Amino acid sequence: MITVLFGGSRPAGNSAELAKMTLQDLDYNWIDLTQYRFNPVRDVRHDEQIISSYNDDYKIIIDQVLKSDTVLLVSPVYWYSVSASMKAFIDHWSETLRDPDYPDFKEKMAQIDFRLILVGGDCPKIKARPCMHQIEYSLEFLGAALKDYLIGNANAPGEIVKDTYAVRIAEKWNSEFKRKSKTLQETK
After folding, report:
1. What's phi and psi for 54, nearest 5 deg?
2. ∠ at Cα 99 (98, 103), nearest 5°?
3. How far apart are the first and last CA of the chain?
4. Contact indicator for 2, 178 with CB cutoff of 8 Å
């Protein structure tokens, strides 16, 4: 199963459009993170406290992520980082590491094919790279890996189609996902 964690504020914006190009003619689970509530993360690493509840929507999302074969993290570049909703979701991974309901959290995350789609308008191929590394290092900390990333250059609505490189990579990923889906269906 492919799950999209979408962190954009425009449901039909450039990052959403690029993600949908990537997933054309595929089945996927689209999760708009802006439609969920994430409380500030509680850092309990040094007081040995156990997390027993989140009091927000995090568990609804992480349970879907952990059932996925592929997860696309999709965000516009906001102030040279991922969106606040994406970052709030990722911050909760610290709590999940201390949650007895997820004893195999790192092992499950390591099995997922994570990909990142970022779109920005201010020299994103250069200025969004630290953002990509943020995601890469966060996944590595969990024993997971960022398999690939795609940085698109667009600002005004609909501009992403002018970034022929990004469109070409989206089409490449689409072909990969279709082959993978076909292989999975044949082995069932």
Report:
1. -110, -25
2. 95
3. 14
4. no
CATH number for 2-187 (one of 3.40.50.360, 3.40.50.620, 2.60.40.10, 3.40.50.300): it is: 3.40.50.360
C-alpha closest to that of 146 among 133, 128, 131, 130: 133
Q: How many CB atoms lie within 10 A of CB 79?
A: 10
CB atoms near residue 48 (< 10 Å):
7
The model's pLDDT over 17-38, given as tens digits with 9 standing for 90+, comes to: 999 999 999 999 999 999 999 9
Q: Where are the domains of the chain?
A: 2-187
Could you read off the pLDDT of 147-175 as tens digits, one per residue?
999 999 999 999 999 999 999 999 999 99
Non-local CB neighbours of 7 within 8 Å, separated by 6+ positions: 33, 34, 73, 74, 75, 76, 82, 83, 84, 85, 86, 87, 89
